[in-house]
Amino acid sequence: MLVIIDYGLGNLASVLNMIHKVGGNTIISGDPNDLLSASKLILPGIGSFDHGVNQLEALGLFPVIKEMAAKGIPILGICLGMQLLANRSEEGRLNGLGLIDAEFKRFSLEIKSPLRIPHVGWNHVRVQKYNPLIPNDGREQRFYFTHSYHAVCAEEADVLATTEYGYPFASAFCRNNVFGVQFHPEKSHRFGMEMIKNFLEL
After folding, report:
1. How far apart are CA 90 and CA 149, in angstroms?
2. HSE-up of 134 (CA within 13 Å, CB side)?
């Protein structure tokens, strides 16, 4: 059973619809017992880092997600969900789940840069290593982004993919069964559909 984690943040219906489009079955739940019975977990989210941490802790989901990661259950974090998988963020003061050794920093662009924060819109993703989530076969990979903070991984080996926005940043990371993507696959049409399908087939 795939569970989309409901902790009060994010458009969960869009993720649910994308999973259904690729033939998957899932439920949306914030019940720890449902998470403990899951074969896969998706942690989506839109909003601030500390609020996300507080919501997960209030529902008793923080230790459950860590337990499932330790058991080898595939976990996919999307946008804020990716950020919560890391150690911390400049956006807040609380600690994240710490499943990936990374922190999130606000984009630091040159004063004269024509780019604006947040980074919003379609952008290319360049796969850095073999992984079961995003093909690294040379095909174009484009996804929809909306964010002001980006991952800085302590270990280069954890960087799954990079994207250019003023400078290259880690737009996806993974370690063993834990995956995080800064973009929104549920808003990324065929590219997102392929990625979600790959996650379901893990």
Report:
1. 8
2. 29
In angstroms, rounded to a whole number, what is the distance separating the alpha carbons of residues 124 and 184?
13
pLDDT digits (tens, 9 = 90+) for 126-143: 999 999 999 888 889 999
Whether 79 sits among the annotated catalytic residues: the reply is yes
Are 174 and 160 in contact by the 8 Å Cβ rule? The answer is yes
What integer pLDDT is reported at residue 138 of this predicted model? 83
Contact 115, 133 (CB under 8 A): no
| 8 Å CB contact between 139 and 170 | no
The one catalytic residue in 91, 150, 174, 186 is 186
The one catalytic residue in 79, 91, 150, 174 is 79
Q: What does pLDDT average to over the chain?
A: 96
Domains and CATH numbers, the chain: 2-200 (3.40.50.880)
Beta strands in 62-189 (DSSP E): 75-78, 88-89, 102-106, 119-124, 126-127, 142-147, 149-153, 159-164, 168-175, 178-181
Backbone angles phi and psi of 14, in degrees to 5 = -65, -40
pLDDT at 11: 82
Q: For this structure, is 186 an active site residue?
A: yes
